[in-house]
């Protein structure tokens, strides 16, 4: 069967867009296990990109276990495909609404994480959470952006659940929110009151976890994420036009809310 692909354009990384289309061909059964991918030259022609972009896309598919190279023969769909990994399409992560939707997902998860942390936290867990809050406050007071410290705070709460599946899910989500981190940070820099709001919300989560009050912790975390959505929506359209390209940058862990 001859595949026909749509040329990619600016927005999300070109290699991500190419990888998405190829992965969809495999997932939809149009490229079957054992099938050979079109040649590199053919992919360059159809996607209207460079050989480097195609190679990066194929490398991503290899890392997902979807394809494998055979010396001198080309690239083939793996005969035994792995379990489908959780994977968000890159183009869907590059908008204000997508950032809000991501935070909605986090709200559902973080609320339960906080509740479980309140029920299960040890004295050592509490020390780590309190130290994370102190480090975040110190970073902001010294003029830093506090992003790394904010991530550490949420990670310390997640660690207190002793649930590796929750921790790994949150880590996975974090890698898709690098652009959101930058945009949210820039937005908060325009509003001094936002920093105070975030500090108060973090304290509410900390106190509920410290008190062992699962219901209060769940509510405090949900409120924190809900307010994060409000803060994201508060940015005017001109701000999003200016900052929006950050959402399409290479993805790493972290989200400041």
What does the model show?
By secondary structure, this protein is mostly helical. The protein has 2 domains: 64 residues, Arc Repressor Mutant, subunit A (Orthogonal Bundle); 159 residues, Four Helix Bundle (Hemerythrin (Met), subunit A), CATH 1.20.120.530. The protein has a two-stranded antiparallel sheet with strand order 1-2. Helix 2 crosses helix 3, helix 4 packs parallel to helix 9 and helix 5 runs antiparallel to helix 6.
Topology diagram in text:
Elements: H1 14-27, H2 40-47, H3 51-63, E1 67-70, E2 74-77, H4 96-120, H5 123-141, H6 147-159, H7 164-175, H8 178-189, H9 192-211, H10 214-234, H11 237-243
Antiparallel strand pairs: 1-2
Helix fraction bin:
55-70%
How far is it from the N-terminal to the C-terminal residue, by CA? 47 Å
| Tally of helical runs | 11
CATH C-level name of the largest domain: Mainly Alpha
Percentage beta strand: under 5%
């Amino acid at each position: 069967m001859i595949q026909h692909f749509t040329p990619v354009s600016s927005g999300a990384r070109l290699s991500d867009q190419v990888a998405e289309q190829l992965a969809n061909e495999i997932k939809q059964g149009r490229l079957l296990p054992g099938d050979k991918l079109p040649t590199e030259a053919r992919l360059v022609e159809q996607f209207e990109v460079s050989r480097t972009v195609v190679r990066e896309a194929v490398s991503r598919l290899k890392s997902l276990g979807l394809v494998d190279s055979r010396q001198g023969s080309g690239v083939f769909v793996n005969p035994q495909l792995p379990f489908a990994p959780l994977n968000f399409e890159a183009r869907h992560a590059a908008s204000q609404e997508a950032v809000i939707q991501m935070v909605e997902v986090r709200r559902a998860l973080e609320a339960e994480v906080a509740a479980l942390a309140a029920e299960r936290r040890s004295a050592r867990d509490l020390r780590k959470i309190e130290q994370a809050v102190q480090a975040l406050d110190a970073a902001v007071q010294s003029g830093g952006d506090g992003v790394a410290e904010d991530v550490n705070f949420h990670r310390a709460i997640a660690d207190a659940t002793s649930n590796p599946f929750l921790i790994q899910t949150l880590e996975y989500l974090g890698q898709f929110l690098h652009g959101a981190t930058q945009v949210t940070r820039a937005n908060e820099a325009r509003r001094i009151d936002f920093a105070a709001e975030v500090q108060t919300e973090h304290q509410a989560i900390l106190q509920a976890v410290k008190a062992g009050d699962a219901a209060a912790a769940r509510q405090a975390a949900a409120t924190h994420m809900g307010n994060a959505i409000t803060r994201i929506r508060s940015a005017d359209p001109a701000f999003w036009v200016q900052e929006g390209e950050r959402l399409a940058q290479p993805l790493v862990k972290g989200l400041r809310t």
